[in-house]
Each structure stands twice: as structure tokens, then as C-alpha cells.
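Researcher: Go.
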Amino acid sequence: MLPTNTTHTSQTNSTQSDTTRLELRIPVDVKKLIEHAASICHVSMSAFVLQTMRQAAEDVLRRDRVTVVPPDFYEAMIASLEAPAEPDKALVDAARRSREIVRKK
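Model: Structure:
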């Protein structure tokens, strides 16, 4: 039960339900390193870890969505996309058969 002098709003509920807890065990020296870095940035250790983890996750996802190719490969690919394709005999025959089937229906 909430104390009587506390106002409880739906926004508070929303904020609480929009978060979750993440726990992990780390070596003492890593914790000290993170604490030091967070203090230099003038943020809490939680804020520093959250910001750093989020940035790392976004970087991984960004790299996963992008394909990097050498410049010569890229130029050849663009050139092939811009060049008109030569009609393939099998494809032309299939298109003709398709038109004949559609006409018969």
C-alpha cells in the first residue's frame, strides 16, 4: 500500500513496467574501471553501463545490417544493374507460353 502523502500516477506505473532488471557478475577490477569511467563522465555507474551496452548493441546490429564490399566489386555491381539485360531464350519462351495460357482461359 502506498503512503497517503504519495501521489501514484499511471505514468509511474508505465515507467516501472517499461524497465527490467539485468544482473551480472564481473571481476572487481572491471567494476573499479567502470566506476572510474562513470565518474569521469559525471554519471552513475548504472547510467554509464546502460549507455555503453546500448551503444555496443546498436553497433553490432548496424554492422549486421550493412554489407561492406570492395570498391571495385561495388562498381561492377552497379554497372551490371544499370546495363540492360539480354533476354534469355528460356525466359522469352516461358513468357510466350504464359501469354498463350492466359489467352486460352
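Model: Residues 45-65 form the longest helix (21 residues).
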